[in-house]
Amino acid sequence: MSTCLHTLHVDLSTPSSDRSYPILIGRDLLADESIFADILEGRDVILVSNDVVAPIFAARVRGALGSRRRVTEVILRDGEANKTMAAVGDILDAALADRHERGAVMVALGGGVVGDITGFAAACYLRGIDFLQLPTTLLAQVDSSVGGKTGVNHPQGKNMIGAFHQPIAVLIDLQTLHSLPAREFSAGIAEVIKYGLISDIGFFDWLEQSASRLLAREESVLAEAIERSCAVKADVVSADEREGGVRAILNFGHTFGHAIEQVQGYGRWLHGEAVACGMVMAARVSAARGQVPRDFVDRLVALLGRFELPVTPPEDMSVADLMASMAGDKKVVEGRIRFILLAQPGNAVIVDDVSAAEIESACFDRANLD
Ligand SMILES: NC(=O)c1ccc[n+]([C@@H]2O[C@H](COP(=O)([O-])OP(=O)(O)OC[C@H]3O[C@@H](n4cnc5c(N)ncnc54)[C@H](O)[C@@H]3O)[C@@H](O)[C@H]2O)c1
Ligand SMILES: O=C(O)C(=O)C[C@@H](O)[C@H](O)[C@H](O)COP(=O)(O)O
Ligand SMILES: [Zn+2]
């Protein structure tokens, strides 16, 4: 028997359509046949996972999918370096080989890499079929499984090829977090902290108070952190599904972070690690502008430090490297890089007037950063 602790909704209803979907947070959801029967009915499935996650969780999902539907299984190679068009091709080849029809559903079982690739394959297959998110990392549970950003990396930049394609549901099984390595858990915490910084300073305060219990992975604290994170994300996505405006605040720390990932080579820094460092950089620029107190940056650095997340740019990375990479960011408009800064703690703002000199002085004066 599974236990559902929280249910949220991503509201995407318009007068002409309703693509809203539920997010279920609970225990043993991945083994619950009745949940899959409700969501998928009798539909065929293309189950996509990777060579780390499948050995741990695929059997229980196969069991819950039951024996009355056709299931094609695709096992990708693990890792950010494999978030490529080739991986999308592997999924499409398998689905075509088994002659899956438009009624089939792609099911993403894994972290953000599997989810982003599978969602994009679902957006492309037969010009678009449904997909279901079964996120197994903290990062995927609080962020990537919700909101419909799907895609793959390109040597020139993160997530450069993709589509907005919403899942039909997100099932967050807290049991999956037991096997998650500590470094991956911390990477997920970075995105959790992001939500406090951009829209809920009370949540940031709570995270400071709850750090030890989060590190101990206490279920009730994890469930609350995930629920509050998904609530912020669902609200922002409902307000601006395709990032025409406010959704860009979810990119806080990412303009810097994606550049770090790309310049270092995908996979050297985890996404969440690069975002952690990027959030500190954005907070430092905000503080230099007098928008947040300097001691708030110290609080952020201390909180990230509890989770052993990086707070200074890679030693071998220059401002020139950073600026060159950020010039290709997806948020660039008419050649101007748009940054997400803090207008104040708990409140983000989008600006396009941050200079290289300002970044250098706020973030690369290494003698003054520690
Ligand atoms: N679409 C979005 O809105 C969005 C949001 C945030 C991040 N992302 C993307 O997500 C990716 C990062 O996702 P991630 O941090 O989940 O990384 P990941 O998918 O690489 O997973 C991290 C590692 O943990 C392993 N793993 C997964 N679940 C496990 C479990 N329960 N037990 C043991 N090992 C497990 C994975 O195989 C992998 O080795 C990046 O590509 C990032 O760009 C997308
Ligand atoms: O959902 C969003 O919007 C986000 O920006 C969430 C980010 O955490 C995530 O890493 C996303 O994939 C970044 O999007 P991108 O458009 O900058 O590639
Ligand atoms: Zn992110």
TrEMBL record:
Free-text remark on how the cofactor is bound: Binds 1 divalent metal cation per subunit. Can use either Co(2+) or Zn(2+).
Organism: Luminiphilus syltensis NOR5-1B
E.C. designation(s): 4.2.3.4
A GO biological-process term: chorismate biosynthetic process
Protein name as catalogued: 3-dehydroquinate synthase
Record has Oxidoreductase as a keyword: no
Family: Belongs to the sugar phosphate cyclases superfamily. Dehydroquinate synthase family.
Residues reported in the UniProt entry to bind NAD(+): 78-83, 112-116, 136-137, 149, 158
Keyword terms, alphabetized: Amino-acid biosynthesis, Aromatic amino acid biosynthesis, Cobalt, Cytoplasm, Lyase, Metal-binding, NAD, Nucleotide-binding, Zinc
